[in-house]
Design goal:
Blueprint lengths: L1 H15 L3 H17 L2 E5 L3 H16 L10 E4 L4 H10 L7 H7 L5 E6 L5 H12 L3 E6 L4 H6 L2 E4 L5 H27 L9
Parallel strand pairs: 1-2, 1-3, 3-4, 4-5
Length: 198
């Protein structure tokens, strides 16, 4: 039990080290993307690929006030196994994300890149292409942040030297951003109160 308690405290401490101002900036950027009809792309490897898929699903469903209004244009670039394996086999795994961005991404879109180390080559290649194409980058990192932290416009950095614990906090970030964004979108829908006429 002592080991389990220590594990939980490490995760809590890492979560407390997150810069909440950057979280606020991420929510504002995603709200703007929604309002302007921009696309949001999410990517990562391994456990981060699963987080990317979950994040894309949450933004597409959980952040939406209802299913009848305007939809959020969100896509996980970790989803297409046939496409990813074809690119890996024919070209190289380091290009599985940036080549997808070349197909779908446009200036003004948002790229959410997730990497515990911050140094995965395919993630860095995608971020470099995204920045060159005029996209804004939200980076979720652990350890020292690596190259991804330096390249990101918004830095959601988890200050802990442990992959699984940083990924645990990434899941917290994903849910927090989704819930806060939903609140923002709901608040924007409420009619503003008018002053009393005299």
């Amino acid at each position: 039990m002592e080991v389990a308690a220590k594990y939980m405290e490490d995760v809590f401490e890492a979560a407390r080290g997150l810069d909440l101002k950057e979280v606020k900036r991420a929510v504002a950027l995603l709200k703007k993307a929604y309002e302007q009809g921009r696309s949001v792309f999410v990517l990562g490897n391994g456990g981060s690929a699963a987080t990317a898929q979950h994040f894309a699903e949450d933004l597409s469903m959980g952040a939406m006030p209802d299913l009848k209004g305007k939809r959020f244009r969100v896509l996980s670039l970790a989803d297409s196994v046939p496409f990813i394996t074809a690119l890996s086999n024919d070209i190289g795994y380091e290009h599985v994300f940036d080549l997808q961005l070349r197909q779908f991404g446009q200036k003004g879109d948002v790229l959410i890149a997730i990497s515990g180390s911050g140094n995965s080559m395919n993630v860095i290649n995608a971020v470099k292409y995204g920045r060159k194409a005029g996209m804004k980058v939200i980076g979720l990192t652990g350890f020292d942040g690596g190259k991804l932290k330096k390249l990101s416009d918004i830095k959601l950095h988890v200050p802990i030297m442990h992959m699984c614990k940083s990924e645990a906090v990434h899941s917290i970030i994903q849910h927090m951003v989704t819930d806060l964004l939903r609140d923002e979108l709901l608040a924007a829908r409420k009619p503003k109160k008018r002053g009393k006429r005299r």
